[in-house]
Amino acid sequence: xxNASVSRRGFLAASTAAAGAVAHPGLAAAQAVGVKxxxxxDLAIKEVRVYNIGSGRGGRGLSQIxxxxxxxxIEGNYTLGNRYWHPNWSNLGWLEYAKxxxxxxxxxxxxxxTSQWKPELRRQGQLSYASAIDNCLWDALxxxxxxxxxxxxxxxxxxxxxxxxxxxxxxxxxxxxxxxLVKEQGFTAxxxxxxxxxxxxxxKLDIEVAKAVRKAAxxxxxxxxxxxxxxxxxxxxxxxxxxxxxDYICFEDPIPTDDIDGLVQLNQALDIPIHIxxxxxxxxxxxxxxxxxxxxxxxxxxxxxxxxxxxxxxxRLAELxxxxxxxxxxxxxxxxxxxxxxxxxxxxxxxxxxxxPQGSSDRPYVKDKFRVAKDGYxxxxxxxxxxxxxxxxxLDQMTVKIDR
Length: 404
Description:
By secondary structure, the protein is α/β, with parallel strands linked by helices.
């Protein structure tokens, strides 16, 4: 947890504001700018579209951006992609689902448009289409109110300290060189994603990497480790003991997330905090992990839990149990943005996870870039909505077709 002191009154005020915003985002947006919800622009949804973007001839290597357009011409955007492991994860058919579900509805009805509260839906896991819908609607709402999303959620801070989050490099020296570089760039912490030799893993090599990085970084530099759930229980115990001896502050996803018993054993046996949550696929599934003591720090990926709305529910659940919440940020600009807005509205967050090398995940059709400042922080976006402005000229040039 952060060393900064948090007053009880400020803590509860921020929590109440964000909880209210998630339940009634339209009202929260209107109150933030001193108007009634009916005084906001016309936020009835008239069109849903998908931009198919390619850099090669014929659109090879297509990526996709979702767009939800209101009667007033405001458009909310988010990426579509098959990026994360999910039992029901595919954005194929997103447009066909979204059009009848959204057209004629209002952005102000945001919570109801992706809710999984019905028992028939909760038993299936979070709807895979929901996150792109939810994030687009938050983007549109912020643009309508001319406010960044975190201001509507209930701003708790205006900057978050960043740690550099590595690629899965092949060699020990790659990590050593990178940790030295990120220190020069202003980072105060670094997270290792260990090598994946021949598509597998080698826990002994991972320990070598951890030792070499500690030696290169120095005793006072903050280090984290994320093997992405590849170890057996026995391997996780060995690596975890090595990491805590090296004074690492985080052991993320050491074993598969569905091995709750193993996670409980690790938490009981190791002193290093265990971070879990990226591969939990519904907000309603987090309570069991918290109740059983299967995690020390709660993580989430908004794409897996229904977008910003689902992410903030998880953040508040962790907060009410006195737990730190450390959302996943790794990826391109939209990935950084949606999690960053959650972090800025959360009292119980410490870190912004910055993909390195910085700039490696920039997109030419996105004007805004996330970078760490010299003081080690990432500062809140000033632009409305998600704060990710599309360069329409570049986007038009790279768009192969628009599906409507």
